[in-house]
Amino acid sequence: MRGLVGRTMRRRVCAASAAVAVTAGLVVAAAPEVAQAVPSGFTIGSSGPSASRGIASDPASQTYWVADAKATKVYAVDPTGTVAGSVPLPFTPTDIEALQFHAGYLYIGDIGDATASRSHITVYRLNSLTYGQSSSYHAWDFAYPDGPHDAATMMVSPRGNIYIVTRGPSAAVYRAPAVPSTSSVNMLVRVAGAPSWVTDGTFLDDSRVALRTFTSVYVLNAFNWTTTAAAELPAQLDGQALTTALGSTTTLVALGRSTADDVAVPTKLAQVLPAPSVAPSASASATESPSAGAGSSTSAAASDQGTTTGAASSNRGTLTALAIALGVAVLAGVVAAVKR
Fold first, then answer.
1. Are 169 and 122 in contact (CB under 8 A)?
2. Which residues is 246 bridged to in the sheet?
3. Three-state DSSP class for 328?
């Protein structure tokens, strides 16, 4: 069994700053959300991470958890931008790419594999989040059924199920066992295709997920994994993180290497550019052509049967297609609800 308590690792934290803009988004839910004072933006101080690779909102403590790709700490940032504290990691990760907060626990996705050479990836769960103190933890090892993949997206559903979305031109969604083992490598199950070059994602609720690339954000039905909405993101340098905004159910926080923007959750399909395989430059516009050699298509997600749903397709935007998609989603929801 993997050790539950490891030794605390320490390192010098490089000075850096990250501007995170969080504002209330457009209310699209049937019932209006409770109005809350959400700041229009803040800057993370130099005691924070040097290069963000994940962000997770923690409504209970009103903080965002942020980590570096190879950090030895995770940082809690309050809505004013102040680093409220940090928690040292009691393990040595290989390549942290994603964070998720669920049911009082912080999940850490050590899932990066740029050379596709790892025999397995690992998801950690810190059992406590007391600033300055090492925590006990759980660790689950996972392997892909079709060989190693690079990934930057790890999501935890409202029911606590772990999902991994691979990164590349032929991305896919994989689901972990409902009760993964801590003593052996767990085999992931491929459940659907995914947008190309996904860099992060999060569950919006029990039936929807949001996935981002360097330049766009997609909303997918979490039962049949078809794309229901899409929008361009503001230009960011190294945009590799996404979470729900504190104090809002309709706003996302898209985080780049040093800056973040608030983004309204898309509610309709829109034409988006093919996702680049590398991060756009800091001055690049989200409406400019992505870098050559991106190797991705405009397709969004594919169903379990491998049917591609193009976010840019005008056919998908018709009322008839939407009605059909809704019917399929309802039927698929009945069948798949027990798996979620």
1. no
2. none
3. helix
Q: How far apart are CA 287 and CA 270, in angstroms?
A: 13
What would the 3-class secondary structure string for 20-84 be? Answer: ECCCCCCCCCCCCCCCCCCCCCEEECCCCCCCEEEEEEECCCCEEEEEECCCCEEEEECCCCCEE
Q: Whole-prediction pTM value?
A: 0.74
pLDDT at 42: 64
Residue 320: HSE in the Cβ half-sphere, 13 Å Cα cutoff: 2
CB 65 within 8 A of CB 76: yes
CA-derived radius of gyration, the chain: 19
10 Å CB burial of residue 12 (0-12, 13-18, 19+) is exposed
- Other CB atoms within 10 Å distance of the CB of residue 151: 27
Residues 142 and 140: their CA atoms lie apart, in Å, by 7
Angle at 82 between CA 111 and CA 266, to 5 degrees: 55
> In terms of CATH architecture, what is 18-339?
6 Propeller (2.120)
CB atoms within 10 A of CB 10: 10
Domain boundaries, the chain: 18-339
Taking residue 61's Cβ as centre, other Cβ atoms within 10 Å add up to 16
Mean pLDDT of 274-296: 55
**Residue burial 155-191, b: 16+ Cβ < 10 Å; e: rest:** bbbeeebbbbbbbbeebbbbbbeeebeeeeebebeeb
Structure tokens at 241: 């993180």
CB atoms within 10 A of CB 283: 8
Higher-confidence position of 193 and 83? 193
